[in-house]
Amino acid sequence: MTAQRSPSLPRSSTSSSQPRDTQQQHLSGRISASIKSTIVGVPDSETQICRFLPKGDLTTILSEQALRTYLKELLSESTDEVVENALHRIIGDPECNEPSRRALLALFLYHQRSGLLHHFKDWLLAPQHDFPSDEWLPFDQDRLDRTTLPPRCHEYIKDYQYIFIPSTIREDMHQTFHSKERLPYIGPPLASIDGSSGTVFTRKVAPGHWEEKRKNGSYAPADTTKPTVLAFKVFSGGHTGQEAETNFEIERNMLEDLRNGNYKHKMILLDSGSFVIRDETRIIQHCLIFERATCTLEEFLTDEKRGLKSWTSSLLLTNLVGLVQALACLHDNLDTLHLDIKPDNILVFDRPPIQLEDGTLQEAKFEWKISDFGLARKRHAKERTGPLYDRNRSASQSASLYATRPAGRFQAPEVQRRGSSKASRGSDVWSMGCVILMVLGFLVDTPSRVLRLLNSLQLEIVEGGVTDNLFYVTSDTYEWRSVMIKELYRFDYLDEPDPVIGIIPEARQMEAAVHPEVVKWSNQLFRWCNDKPEQPILKDALGIVFLRVLLIEKSQRIGAFYLSKRLADVRDRWKEIEAPSEPQNEHPEPRSLHSLEPDDDNGVTTPPHGSDNQGGSPVPSPIVEEPQPVALDHSRLCSAITQTGSASPKGFRQVIKEELIRDISQVREPCPLLSCQSHPINVAIRHKSYDALEELLIKANSGDLIIPCSGCGDRTPLEEACERPGDPKALKYFKLYKSEFGVTREFYDGHKSNMTKPAKEALRKLLQAPGQQQTDGSVIRRILTGRSNGS
């Protein structure tokens, strides 16, 4: 048998005083036991509408041998030829277009309805072949009237027939079921998670009732004799169900659009199908089907038991990089905003190696995937408006792009403020930055460190005393005073520790900044790594988050594509310090992780040109498997540049000198590796490798400081040094080694507002003297783009 629990056989005593069960009684008992096994643990109030006979059990119980024995009992005076002919009529033959009658016989055997079984016997012996079969199920009244069955049996058939024709759910198909049909769920849900748009149930589907789509478009039952476990997202809401229908259609259409797009990313979770259930008048349930996950990322990062496992840092960072690459694929390839990035919407799939029934070993799997596209929309689509979304605002904020659920702690400032500018790709990047902080806390410490971060986010609005939990504070909160008193709000580990305050564009131009408690938490995390080799890498990772991602002004945030590149560098450096003997995850390294090695961009490849910020996000190329170009000499230079900030930079500095002596042109040529494509000077500034910068400036000329770098969003080295909050040390090196170099007043005025005082002062010293040749990037850009005034 293939049900969850094999039905026990009715006992037959060997005592002469008690007769042996007949084959009819035996089959009836097995059918009843199989049906009962599907509702074990189901509340009594639901058993009548949930019970069913799995098709695998039907075939097993009414096997050829069992039917032959039963027919010899039923047709006791008939010849073997008659018995075999009756057996053939019950089993049927699909190739000859002869229908089966197994389900119909099981319906009659269920309660041993002697009158119905008598009619079934007559049908088997009748000369005609057009008597009722399984294809007649479910009977309506018209069909019942066309049979020879007495009217007194009609109600029994209509009440019980659906037990014997349970539904089959198909992968990648949208289906419609009637409310009387039995969905093939075995037992109660294994788990359920409530959300604002509905509930996600984890359920077992009976063997044979989940059909997978083959490459040729046909369907076949999953190749297993065990139940298939799937996740079912059931939508709810509204007195008439209109909210549920609207939310379901929005998410299903978005997933369909992503599925049909030209780009795919394995860390974007698409649905595995959908269905609706309707009664006589309307649709009463909407459901999306998904692969079952082990847990959410929030559960993973905050569960102390999972924290005891020996996850390698590079394994976790590999998945984090993959998530950001998946977000870049959404933004740049699919032109889609997710708008609800949070740890609860990132699912973790952690599966050990499994021995399959055919003896083969299914490899382990450990990967994270972005899920829940209920709020997602195309970047240029109209905002959703109306009562469905208006009433879902948070207590103190409201989104310009109304959400289908209350605004959450991971959403960006511009999403949650009434009257603020619309959501953008930068809004997703902010949310991902919050996730990155949680992963870093888990990475270097334990889940308790992550919980400490989440528990520190409370703030209180001055007007009305309303509380909320966010990664930032605004000037209308009591916590804002900590921002104003800078001694209480400083990054201990950053070169420029002052807070970055931004404006949320509202009628009253509200100021905002990262929550002081988040800053405090990051300082504590950094100190936790004192005297540990990963501290410099952690410093850079936190710097990426706070200086390029968690910025109030969304136009200043780095794009997801370039964020993935910087995190990939963090991952690679972290991997280098992992000792070979460091314990690995208890699973063998899965095949799925090989595709996430450092040189793999999961379908998001470096474009020739693009912007590091949201204003000009790159358009990655399609997924193409091709070998990476070999440029070991130049990658050696870039590698040495990134290492000169380490504890022992002398050896790397010597490598840089040797490389520049060997080929001086490297100082102005981009690295040919697709994973880099950056100019050496830009690389040195980005990594704060000042020893390397000094060697490069000695060999460079002033013109090299104004060459656009495609791997850095088309920024020149000068613009790289002026990126918020500015790099005063790099600018001082410019002045020291290129005294003839100068910038225009126009350039200075355009960048000073985003720079700290030391950086602004260093840039001011580079201002051109009267009559000095203009050497910033504006003239070069006009010449390169054909917009020169002729000078």
Put the structure in a nutshell:
The chain is α+β, with helices and mostly antiparallel strands and 791 residues long.
Structural account:
Strands 2-8-9-7-4-3 form a six-stranded mixed β-sheet. Helix 28 packs parallel to helix 30 (757-764). The chain has four domains: 23-164, no CATH class; 169-291, Phosphorylase Kinase, domain 1 (2-Layer Sandwich); 295-605, Transferase(Phosphotransferase), domain 1 (Orthogonal Bundle), CATH 1.10.510; 632-784. Residues 1-16, 385-407, 581-612, 615-634 and 773-791 have low confidence and may be disordered. The chain is elongated. It starts with 22 loop residues before the first helix and ends in a 7-residue tail after the last helix. By secondary structure, it is an alpha+beta fold.
